[in-house]
Amino acid sequence: MTVLTSAPPAPSASLTSGRLPKWAPWALLGVSFAVSAAVFGVAAAGSDTPLADFNIAGTVIVGILLYMVIITVISSIAESRRKAVDRLMTALVATAFLIALLPLVSLLWTVVANGIERFDAEFFSYSMRNVVGDGGGIVHAIWGTVLITLTATIISVPIGLMTSIYLVEYGRGKIAKAITFFVDVMTGIPSIVAGLFIYAVFALLLRPGISMGFMGALALAVLMTPVVVRGSEELLRIVPNELREASYALGVPKWLTILKVVLPTSIAGIMTSVMLAISRVIGETAPLLLTAGFTQSLNTNIFDGQMMTLPVFAYNQYMNQGTNPDAAVARAWAAALTLILIVMVLNLLARLIAKWFAPKLSGR
């Protein structure tokens, strides 16, 4: 007769079991921040306005440093030196992540807090024509931004993608190296130089002082093209050669292999590089001031007349505040928030397009 006995319960994590419990790091982090806050609170207690003089940034920095010291010492005692170093490195990586995230969160919070004031129907329905004080809107700037950026994308994406295909699939020797070199040089060109180049070309071909939306689109295309080339080139290179060889073995020509195998395999990454290029140029101000100009009225013809864009609108409202500076600054912040939302929508749209065109795997 077999007697079944229950297994002994697993020992719970404690300071004497060779490993810290899961709640211990969080508790030590809370204690570190509490001690740091107490120290800075005592330092600010002697002032007339203790709450205003309380150093939040110092509290966070000292609390993090104190936590690193405490978690390393306790882990080395309760666990091992190797585990203590691991926990210290984890704390350092998490701190670096938070430091990198802090400017983004601060930027978004500032833009939303200042720009939400003018998010109303009037702001998205009217232009700034005949408006010198309160009121007005950005419908002309939204149309200008969309049309100029769309035109620049239509120009730069085919050129950049075909250039990257040539470099990966066909390019060899000095010509490919020269193209790669000049693409790298173009990546670092200041945006104002692109605007000056386009303005100089049109001033020589047409007349000095000319401004139109198409000139702004060309200036942005000059900035977008090298970004698309470099991003697409790297993504095309990581496509496995086995896929190409399998297609060649079936008798498929090279151009059709690129079209049906290589591009669909890397379409998600290519869309990401395109969105990076759009995000790179959609907020440019200097080249558009030189090429597209600015106007207070709605203009949807990129080949005739000046066009307003969102970054130029925000710059113009801040620099030329008119009779009501508060209203002008509020419009500038609202335009910046609108620009961020447009970039976010474009990124979501790019992800949907990439998911739609991505190759479908069997069994899923």
UniProtKB/TrEMBL annotation:
Gene3D superfamilies: MetI-like. It is found in: Cell membrane. PROSITE patterns: ABC_TM1 (PS50928). Pfam families: BPD_transp_1. Part of the binding-protein-dependent transport system for phosphate; probably responsible for the translocation of the substrate across the membrane. It comes from the Bacteria. This is Phosphate transport system permease protein PstA. The gene is pstA. The keyword Protease does not apply. It comes from Microbacterium sufflavum. Belongs to the binding-protein-dependent transport system permease family. CysTW subfamily.
